[in-house]
Amino acid sequence: xxxxxxxxxxxxxxxxxEELSFGARLxxxxxxxxxxxxxxxxxxxGAGKTxxxxxxxxxxxxxxxxxxxxxxxxxxxxxxxxxxxxxxxxQNPTAHSDxxxxxxxxxxxxxxxxxQSPSAEVKRVVALLxxxxxxxxxxxxxxxxxxxxxxxxRALLGDQPWLACDEPTxxxxxxxxxxxxxxxxxxxxxxxxxxxxxxxxxxxxxxxxQLVLLHKGRLVAAGExxxxxxxxxxxxxxxxxARWLCTEQGVALLPSLLKQPS
Length: 262
Hints:
By secondary structure, the chain is α/β, with parallel strands linked by helices. The protein has helices at residues 49-57, 79-85, 101-107, 118-129, 144-156, 174-189, 201-207, 225-228, 231-238; strands spanning 2-6, 9-22, 26-34, 38-42, 64-69, 72-73, 86-89, 162-166, 193-197, 210-215, 218-223, 240-247, 250-257.
């Protein structure tokens, strides 16, 4: 691992992205993140969020640059090693036949190194996502939001040190959006690195320790939310202006479209 010194505090950096590129879809993106951080990857549609997540985690082989986690170059690891290091929630998981949720979760245990019995591991993630009532139901008969929570539970199997999620709050109602973000924040605080692609800037500002803002495949800014979500960056990346409401419970974004020149 790489150790950085900020003042008197030593920060252990586990994830390093160095000029990572994937054709024209991602160009020379660099940032680093420390163990214990929840990192949000944000940007407009087509900005490269999914491509960055996939290139970071070995789903895509970079055309240039590299991503390392705990000093291991991800693209050089065998798929089995990647699976034991990274839990991954894709944006659009492959459709499944009418298997039950319990079967779907058990099938996610393949090639994982478990610290407890398979049944205990399934019970752990079921409790985290509050999906006890779904276990006997066919996966395809759940609502979109219910399926998303089940898919996240499956990504959490194995308790890997790095969890990467592409739109984990997609299809969720407000209650479960907050529940999922609070869960991810808690998991990061327990010593994981969590990287998430998000559309909701209010959720990103409220829960993330660091944001990575992309625009057309290029890095606009990376750092603490207040330093990234500036008026200039929001205008350039999203074409909006914003007013922020700040309370003790968090922040909310009130966006407005920028006026186009006549």
